[in-house]
Amino acid sequence: MLPHQLELLSPARDADIGIEAVNHGADAVYIGGPGFGARAQAANPLPDIERLVRHAHRYHARVFVTLNTILRDDELEAARRLAWQCHEIGVDALIIQDMGLLELDLPPIELHASTQCDIRTPEKARFLQDVGFSQIVLARELTLEQIAAIDAALGPRAAPQRAVLEFFIHGALCVAYSGQCYVSHAYTGRSANRGDCSQACRLPWEVRDAQGRILARDKHVLSMKDNNQSANLRALIDAGVRSFKIEGRYKDMGYVKNVTAHYRRLLDAILEERPELAPSSSGRCTYTFTPDPQQNFNREFTDYFVRGRQLDIGAFDSPKNPGRPIGWVVRVAADHVEIETDDPATELANGDGLCYFDARQQLVGLQANRVERLGPGTDGGVRWRVEPKDTIATLRDLKRGTRVNRNRSMAWERLLQKKSAERRIGLHLRLHADGDDLVLALTDADGHRAEARLPGPFELARDAERHARQLTESLTRLGETIFAAASVELALPAPWFVPASRLNELRRAAVQALLQVREAARPRGQRRPPVQPPVSYPDDVLTYLGNVYNHKARDFYARHGVRVIEAAYESHEALGEVSLMITKHCVRYSLHLCPKQAKGVVGVQGTIRAEPLIIEHGDQRLTLRFDCKRCEMHVVGRLQSHVRREAQRQLREQPLRFYRARPAITGTRAIPPSAARCETSASTG
Questions:
Q1: How far is the C-alpha of 189 from the C-alpha of 183, rounded, in Å?
Q2: What is the pTM of this model?
Q3: Of 185, 378, 668, 675, which has the fewest Cβ atoms less than 10 A away?
Q4: Segments in 131-252 forming alpha helices (H)
């Protein structure tokens, strides 16, 4: 990617969704391979990825494969082979977290540093650039000023080894710094760093203070609203971001089509304003719908910390989609409910998802099994009869006057189930003579040129003007190709008659030749060589937060000056109470209990202290500790004994190899750390 280019990066759960992402304007797509991706349920076979690669490359769009879990020693060889297989099918880059991969014999493919690498500081970003990463996915929690500082630390944007800054602009938000959450593993054995998060952050919690007083009951205090940076794209560009990433490798086709088209339009408008910038792929998109992110699942939107700390970033009432307000209940009957819409243009349909908040502010779903239009309402809207899928008796607190939202529109979903976009590259066609031969020269919007020749001689047309119109019309019939005629020039010495079949043959040959020229000219990234001698890591001590799970990762950090290297949390060496989550989100701040909020308030200043809080859900009990200097919150707990016992049982049945910083125990014999790399163990600590 060139420094003046902007990249819209879309997610793909599978190849078909990835292809539609490209069709709807993505400059690049990221997708999970057969294994080792941070979304365990979004794996794809290599032949499917190859099909996506072929389609994307026609537009000079790129495909990235996620290989971004932390790896055990016994997984490294399989990961190495997968990296080579991705390279062989034309994948443009690998997104990785585990630094052990950099110690392997990898193919000459671009490496991108995953957001799981927890990239928040200029020093960390510069280090990753210097060890050979071409693109760096920044932490979602950064402000514009922090992004600009990282951009400055990487050096001149036009420098040959300069890394591209990538930033999430839309989708679900992890409350923790990515790569710094172990709650799932501590309580279930499912590791977020290995693509299997149990999403404890979306649960309802009871919050208590140090005196045991309840501050919040059944509130989703760790659940964030969804990210939406639509209003901040220009500021992000100015701060140095060049790749704009949409979250959502678990999302469906409609989501990817809609959100990709939304941001494609916004970025295209910026490109029109700023001719010094350019897209990183080819073609212009047209749509059969008007993109609208509100139509997809969302927990309402926030721009998170980009403009500084905001109070209203949490989806504390519900982690579900509350939808858009459409009206209110005017009557509740035994088998149906009558609703009046606010806007007479609002149309309901069978299968629509409706919802409302009950007396406890819990979201209650009301799926419309059958709807019937009754006529005009009393306040200018339209009255509808709605027969719900569930019985009326099960819809708690539903009564006259209840506000109703719609969080699923069947009409919208049906619209996006059809073909909804075309992406075409502008083409200039020139038909001219070369002696007795006919030559069709094609020049695309990127300046690539090819031609095809049809041997003559040709007879003269009886009706020159009519035949010229037919030639022009035939040349513009580009059908299912990636091209659209921007202009046609006929430069013949006489009104030659060309049979339609032969002209079609000429056009097809010229298009095929142009596709070959485009493929030969397609930019191909290479793995960047690391700076020599090896640069030093920003710190000389790595705790379990460094996620070192294999000996190659240990060797990497040691080679870069780290003296003390603890094992990853998944190695089960951190058995006491530790930070299971580190987050910029602050529960105290959200509950108006932050000492900084009280500063200067008469009668309040000095009475509020950042004492720990307790959160509970069922048998889960965690402590919230507050680092006010860094303005961060730590969720503190310990590895549950049943998780450790289950890991020990699995190790007895299937011995595994992973990095330990402390001596491992097998039976009664201690194994020194230097020998542990080649031993299998029946113990986790």
A1: 9
A2: 0.94
A3: 668
A4: 144-153, 183-188, 233-239
